[in-house]
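stuck on this one:
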Amino acid sequence: MSEIIVKSAKEEDLDQIINLQQTNLKRNVNLEKRKKDGYVTLETSEDVLQDMIKNELVIGAYENDKLVAYLICLEKARLDVNLDALTELQKISKQIKINGKQLNDTKYCALESICIDKEYRSKGILPKLYEYASKQLGPKYDYAIGFIDQKNPRSYHSHVEKLGFLTIGTFDDSINKATWNIVAKPLRAIG
């Protein structure tokens, strides 16, 4: 494996992001592989991805010019992008507390989606993505908030056990038929 470079994604990376997302979407991965390898629950449309790339909210990990992983961030002010889990977060953010403060009263960005190509998992890419996110977004935000489907233990383990995210709540999403763990970590402490 060559050196992995982490940087903000560019518009020319859009097709690679969509291909990696489609390959790993829950509906495209059989149950056995979902349990073993994890999956992406939320599909981000091409239009939304283009907007996020322009605003430097998509972080990519690259081997040479090949995108091998991505992390998509959403700013609190942009949580109206028609993603059901994010809409639900807005509704319940007044009820969730983190370090004694209501989540709604903090500056946070939502981690909308993280995906690592199967061939590159368990190679230290996830911490690199979050370290870059911390540098990019840490000056503007206090916390990174993520949502992990309770049926995706690989992702939950990676975030909570390996990266030290805290579980701060749960909610049921009837549209995606999922129960989400809400996890959080101070952005300045990621990595």
Notes: The mean pLDDT is 86. Residues 125-137 form the longest helix (13 residues). The chain has one domain: 4-189.
